[in-house]
Write a structure and sequence with these properties.
The protein is α/β, with parallel strands linked by helices and 437 residues long. The protein is built from 15 helices and 16 strands. It has helices at 103-110, 115-120, 124-133, 137-153, 169-185, 208-225, 243-255, 272-278, 292-301, 313-319, 326-331, 352-363, 367-374, 376-380, 410-413, and strands spanning 14-24, 44-53, 56-62, 75-79, 84-87, 89-91, 156-162, 190-197, 231-236, 259-264, 283-286, 308-311, 336-338, 399-402, 420-425, 428-431. The strands form two sheets. Strands 1, 2, 3, 4, 5, 14, 15 and 16 form an eight-stranded mixed β-sheet that branches. Helix 4 (137-153) packs across helix 5 (169-185), helix 5 (169-185) runs parallel beside helix 6 (208-225) and helix 12 (352-363) crosses helix 13. The longest helix has 18 residues, at 208-225. It starts with 13 loop residues before the first strand and ends in a 6-residue tail after the last strand. Bound molecules: N-(iminomethyl)-L-glutamic acid and fe (iii) ion. The site of fe (iii) ion (FE) has 5 residues, from loops.
């Protein structure tokens, strides 16, 4: 098959998939996300067909209404007997632009040090910031590109990427320029979040206000002017940034049209959930430590602009910290999202198939709920719900075709297995398995 300029396989102009064991996530146009009980009610068409043209889904239905083929020109026909067809995974929380892995800290953790103890010894985010500052844009781009290529092979078709390892005006801008280049050159949609408030850099030791002023008065306006970010993020946590500091950053971001997607309640509950709701954050992420008041505030927010609640179970797995209470959030009617949190410190993996399994095994999400959280809800947590996240005519033909598997539940059940056969992004095979032969 021919390779395009970017090194990826060229687009299949017309695509017809027939005999799919099921088309999964066939939600109607205009449905923006799954909330609460509707997460388990993932719409599906058994024994289905799906057609796409020029990268967009053009039609789908049950094989009893198979349209038949009259025009074979430029047509790629896939017989998906025994296989499921799903919308590709949408990863709405990652830090894939970084200079180097931190496996030495991993060994320290095995020996018993905590994430916070490692940070206090100069490891953690500041360690990554030192390495990122020393690396040129070109190298950062190539490392991140390789990570994204691997993630696409694993079914990821859209990604959000945060800055936050620069921690100075010029290095945060450098990271965001790398993300912009990924946007321009990678086949999958990329969204950028400004996470300058990730840790206090050493130059500002004893001068927190100075760093916050730099973010709010200089960085946010410049980033907005240059269109370098879609969202603003803050690591609101004991020993990192306070609730009041997060509020100031969210206000400054909102004034420039950047909505919040924030790190809250990873280790402690300090009122960040309530503040993020007040400033209409699009999503609040982590939530490993939620108390009853937090859950009440989230429930009350359903009356207005409730944020997406984005859970990151592979971070809990890697750090051996509690898993977020997914069941309580779903039972309260919230919209739960799952994402990878791919970063060198707390989650050195962008594999959303593992996230799917962990969500089911450790957080007791049903397979359908976890798939809803990784598809339409993930898309919506990046404001991509009109483009991705479901098998809906008009949306991008960014799809996963599984191997031949006995049931949908087998996907999370057979954890650690590679159950994916083919991945298409905008109708282009990113990975072509037996289904495409
Ligand atoms: O989402 N919690 C804050 N930020 C990242 C970890 C960053 C790092 O350790 O490098 C997270 O887990
Ligand atoms: Fe994160």
């Amino acid at each position: 098959m021919p390779f395009g300029a970017a090194g990826f396989l060229c687009r299949v102009r017309r695509l017809l998939i027939k005999n799919a064991k099921a088309l999964v996530g066939t939600s109607p146009l205009g449905m923006n996300c799954y909330r609460g009980a509707s997460m388990a009610d993932l719409p599906m068409i058994e024994d289905g067909w799906l057609a796409a043209e020029d990268g967009r889904i053009t039609g789908l239905g049950a094989m009893t209404d198979f349209p038949g083929i009259t025009d074979w020109k430029d047509l790629t026909l896939i017989d998906a007997t025994g296989r499921f067809v799903l919308p590709g995974w949408c990863d709405s929380h990652t830090h894939v632009v970084f200079a180097a892995p931190r496996e030495e800290e991993f060994v320290d953790k095995i020996k018993g040090l905590s994430y916070q103890e490692i940070a206090a010894r100069g490891g953690g985010i500041l360690n990554s910031a030192m390495k990122l500052r020393a690396m040129d844009e070109e190298s950062l781009y190539h490392h991140a590109k390789a990570r994204l290529e691997e993630m696409m092979r694993l079914g990821t078709v859209a990604v959000e990427i945060k800055s936050g390892y620069g921690l100075s005006l010029e290095s945060e801008l450098k990271m965001l320029r790398v993300i912009r280049r990924l946007k321009e050159t990678m086949p999958l949609p990329v969204k950028a979040s400004l996470l300058a408030a990730h840790a206090l850099p050493p130059e500002f030791n004893g001068n927190r206000e100075g760093y916050l002023r730099m973010i709010c008065d200089d960085l946010i306006p410049q980033v907005a002017r240059e269109g370098l970010a879609d969202f603003v993020d803050v690591f609101c946590e004991t020993n990192y940034f306070t609730v009041a500091e997060m509020e100031n950053v969210l206000k400054a971001g909102n004034a420039f049209g950047l909505r919040g997607k924030v790190h809250v309640n990873q280790f402690t509950s300090i009122g960040a959930v309530q503040a993020a709701i007040k400033h209409e954050a699009l999503s609040i992420d982590h939530l490993e430590v939620l108390d009853e008041l937090d859950i009440e505030a989230l429930t009350a927010s359903l009356a207005a602009a409730a944020p997406f609640t984005t859970l990151l179970p592979s971070c809990s797995f890697f750090l051996r910290i509690p898993y977020a209470p997914a069941r309580a959030l779903i039972e309260r009617g919230l919209s739960v999202v799952l994402a990878s949190d791919f970063n060198p410190g707390s989650t050195p993996s962008g594999n959303l198939n593992l996230v799917l399994s962990l969500a089911c095994i450790q957080m007791r999400m049903l397979p359908e709920e976890a798939i809803a959280a990784l598809t339409l809800n993930g898309a919506a947590a990046m404001d991509l719900q009109d483009e991705l996240g479901s098998l809906t005519p008009g949306k991008r033909a960014s799809l996963i075709i599984t191997k031949e598997i006995p049931s949908l539940a087998y996907l999370p059940y057979a954890f650690g297995n590679d159950n994916i056969d083919t991945v298409l992004i905008d109708g282009k095979p990113i990975r072509s398995g037996a289904a495409l032969q």
